[in-house]
Amino acid sequence: MTHMKISMAQALNQALRDAMKADDTVLMFGEDVGALGGVFRITDGLTEEFGEDRCFDTPLAESGIVGMAVGLAMNGMRPVVEMQFDAFGYPAFEQIVSHVAKMRNRTRGKITLPMVIRMPYAGGIGGVEHHCDSSESYYAHTPGLTVVAPATVADAYTLLRRAIELPDPVVFMEPKKLYWAKEEIDLTEGQPGIGTAVVRREGADATLIAYGPTVPVALEAAEVVAAEGRQLSVVDLRSIVPFDDETVCAAVRRTGRAVVVAEASGFASVSSEIVARVTERCFHSLAAPIRRVTGFDIPYPPPKLEKYQLPGVDRILDAVDDLQWEDS
Amino acid sequence: MTTVEERLLPSAEPVRLIDQDGVQHDHPSYQLPHREALVGGYTELIKGRRFNDQASALVRQGRLAVYPSSHGQEACQVAATMVLRDGDWLFPTYRDCVSIVSRGVDPIETLTLLRGDWHSGYDPYARNVAPQSTPLATQLTHAVGVAHAARLKGEDTVVMALCGDGATSEGDFHEALNFAAVFHAPVVFFIQNNEYAISVPLARQTVAPSLAHKGIGYGVPGERADGNDLAGLLAVLGQAVKKAREGEGPQLVEAHTYRVQAHTNADDATRYREDDEVTPWLERDPIKRLETYLNEQGWLDDTVREHAEAMADQVGTQLRDGLMPEPEVDPWELFAHLYTEQTQQLREQAAFLRDELAREEV
User: Fold this and answer.
1) Which of A218, B134, B242, B271 is 20–30 Å from A281 (CA)?
2) Domain range for residue A19?
3) Could you list the residue range(s) of the whole structural domain that residue B343 is in?
4) Exactly one of A3, A99, A130, A131 is catalytic; which is it?
5) Closest partner residue to A242 among B176, B336, B344, by Cβ?
6) Is residue B244 domain-shared with residue B357, that is, in the same domain?
7) What is the ipTM metric for this complex?
8) Is B237 exposed, middle or buried (0-12, 13-18, 19+ CB in 10 A)?
9) Is the pLDDT of residue B176 over 60?
10) How far is A17 from chain B, CA to nearest CA, in Å?
11) Are A25 and A52 in contact (CB under 8 A)?
12) Which residues does chain B have within 8 Å of residue A91's beta carbon, measured at their own beta carbons?
């Protein structure tokens, strides 16, 4: 593949295209993914290229979509399904929790489910009610699922290819607001695989831990802080499950201070889990309590109010300022 | 030219080829199965009844955690698998152990779930039997997926998807029928309407004329049969399977039967129904009527009867012997099967448990 400047949406589209080319059993289906190419155009042109049997629209029923994918995966296929919006995915919750996550365990590994549930997720696109939840904590809390959230164009390609190749089910969280962000990339599977976090920026003073849509925000905050004389590390988790304790803890130990940045409401969330496990492992390396910059514990706000909910650069800067620098 | 109603609505009365007195009735659309099928089916019923009653007895002895019996529903259980070929699939619920065993799955492995030493004990691919599903109707959409995959592969597999009357109120029942219809998937949805969902009677699930009537809303042909008449069930289910296999899309069959026992041993049916309601159903027992019919025909000689009894005894012995020893459980299994590649976190938690157990032994 050549070096080119493409968006995350295009990279995801190419990943699906290449996966479907490489393996006849890869199927893509969901709502409006056929002729329309998906409401975010992630499946653009796939029906045209691979035919109705490989990329197709279904009746409008998310539980049915995921349930059917379970059956297809049981019988030799590698289904990829799209939940049109994160907050439309809840009718499928029963299927995901009771079957997708448990099938391998309950059958002692006799049935594996190589399937991917693609989920356009999180906010920042001015979506009206029921279009912008950050539902990753529900899935991360469910043993048996692999939960992935790319933050870069290159990762979107690599991680989706790896997710489709994985013999186990993956909930693939695609940050909606990054769909149109373009990057110059080599469209190959050159990035690390699922389960590996990456340090996006090295810095000795504090570590920002982010995933999905908050990674670019964290990087921006680190730029601003650098101008003020402090160097921040930024860790991009890339996958929430499996969680890369090693990379995260190594970064925190190097810096002694950390801030977790996530869009989801903070209470009982992935961000609270990160604080808990890092504290358990790195307590003696910490010079200050780990801070969190998360969404408030409120339903996702209407478009005109979402700016108050989303973790922005200023809130991250304030949290960094609060890391008890005067005590060291 | 048939009308939509003629094509999709069930017959006015459930199809019944042998009534509760063992008397045969002709039916305009369905033939009585041949002698071998009925005699073979008789043996399966006797075995199924023994399985149910032995398993219930083993609950009382503490050998099973719980057993949702299909006592009285054995004709449905047995017919569902008798009409299938080797490559076909069965999607059972927790009440369908007899069906699973009659499909050829090891009885002890079948009872793993209810014994509690694991969730599903048999290899689903050995006899194409999906794990028993407890969340109602959720397995029905899986059945559609398996059937659709078979079609994509060019195989003429049929999927028999079982559920009860209560499950028809679940959203997944609706979604499964609709998906199957839209994708023309070769699934036979077989509802065993035993009148009760634990304590709640059918009247609280639906006011539809019958559960088989629900098919027309999805464009799926519905049919209804006397659920205690093995002959009628074999004819109706056999035809549904044939149609599905020949590319006519999904089929819906409702069997009218009755849960003569409580939901499980943990349930008390006297709290929600009168004995007067149960008694007539005992007269409609599936074994009794077939026995009467076969006797009248002179097809039930001592050889057949002794063979059936011997097979049933074998089932009883197998269950008693197989469930008598306390099952060996392996705590490491708790962590072993979640992922193809175990996560670091699960390795750590397994090590924690290992350490805890080692300290207990000291």
Assistant:
1) A218
2) 3-186
3) 330-362
4) A131
5) B344
6) no
7) 0.97
8) buried
9) yes
10) 19
11) no
12) 171
